[in-house]
C-alpha cells in the first residue's frame, strides 16, 4: 500500500497542467504607462528603460493605435512639463501636459480607459510632492494643490484618478474635491502602500523627478514595514478609495497578499521601472529568457492577490498572449 501522495499525476502533460492552473494573466488585467512631454516630433527612448519612450502629442497616435490593436484596456498618463516652479503649477493647469494628453487620448482612442497620475514631484523645481518650507514638505498645503490637480484631470476627461503622493489625508481631500465639482462618479486608485524604494531610479530619469535635496522617506514608507502598510490602506479605505495600489510589486508580494486578505477592494500591483529595467538588461545579455521571467513575475502578482497589474511590460505581454506564446 502506498504511503505517499502522487502529486505528479496532475503534472503529467501540458493539457492537465493548463486545466488545473490556479492563476492566469490576461490582457484585461494590464495597465500600460505612457510618458508625455511638451514639444513636437519627439519619440525618444528612455535610456534606462529600453522599449519605453517619451512622446510628444503629435507622435502619440501610432502608439495609441498599437495599444488598442493589442487589446490593452487602459493607460496611465505621466507628464513631463517644460517648466517647473515651487508649487508644481503645471500639474493642475488647464493646459498642462497631462490634461492635454488626456483630451488627445479620449479623442483618438475613446475605447481606452484613461487613468491620470496625480502627483506634484515632476512638476516642482525641488522634486518633492508638495510645497517646501525650511526643508519640510508641507502636507496640508500639498492637499489643496492635489485637489486642484485631480479636478483639472477629471475636467480633461480622465476616467480614474490615481494619486501617488503619499500625503496624509490625500484620498479624503481628493474625494471631497471631485464630489463637490461634479465628479462623484470618478473612482480613485490610491497608491495606498508606496514604499521609499530604490527600484524607482529609471522612472525618476523618465519623469525628471529626482528630488533636488534629501529624499522622500518622510512621506513614503520604510521598506522594512508591513504592519504600517495595513494602517495606510485602512486610512485610504475609510477616506473613500475605490482601489488600492501596492508599489513596488516584486519585493512586496507579502504586502499585496495582506492587503488583499484585509480589504474588500480591488488590489493593483505596480511593477515598477527598476523591476522592468533589470529584466530588460538581463535579457539583452542573454542571461534570462525574458518572456518566461516576465510571465512568472506577473503570475506571482496575481497569486499574491492583485486583480490588476500596472506594468511597462504590458505591450510585450499582450503580444505574447495574442500570438499564443504565453508560457510560464
Automatic annotation (TrEMBL):
What catalytic activity is recorded? 2 5-aminolevulinate = porphobilinogen + 2 H2O + H(+)
Which is one Pfam family of this protein? ALAD
Q: Which residues bind 5-aminolevulinate 1?
A: 204, 216
UniProt key word Protein transport: no
Q: Which GO terms describe its cellular component?
A: cytosol
Molecular function in Gene Ontology? porphobilinogen synthase activity; zinc ion binding
Q: Which GO terms describe its biological process?
A: protoporphyrinogen IX biosynthetic process
* Record-listed E.C. numbers: 4.2.1.24
EC category name: lyase
Which UniProt keywords are present, listed alphabetically? Heme biosynthesis, Lyase, Magnesium, Metal-binding, Porphyrin biosynthesis, Zinc
PROSITE patterns in alphabetical order: D_ALA_DEHYDRATASE (PS00169)
**Coiled coil regions in record:** none
Question: Where, by residue number, does Zn(2+) bind?
Answer: 119, 121, 129
Functional pathway:
Porphyrin-containing compound metabolism; protoporphyrin-IX biosynthesis; coproporphyrinogen-III from 5-aminolevulinate: step 1/4
Return the Gene3D superfamilies for the record: Aldolase class I
Q: Which residues bind Mg(2+)?
A: 232
Residues in the active site?
A: 194 (schiff-base intermediate with substrate), 247 (schiff-base intermediate with substrate)
Names of required cofactors: Zn(2+)
The question of whether Membrane is a record keyword is answered with no
Q: Where does 5-aminolevulinate 2 bind?
A: 273, 312
Q: What do we know about how this protein assembles, alone or with others? A: Homooctamer.
Q: What does this protein do?
A: Catalyzes an early step in the biosynthesis of tetrapyrroles. Binds two molecules of 5-aminolevulinate per subunit, each at a distinct site, and catalyzes their condensation to form porphobilinogen.
In the record, the note on similarity to other proteins reads: Belongs to the ALAD family.
Tell me the protein's name. Answer: Delta-aminolevulinic acid dehydratase
> Which source organism does the UniProt entry give?
Baia soyae
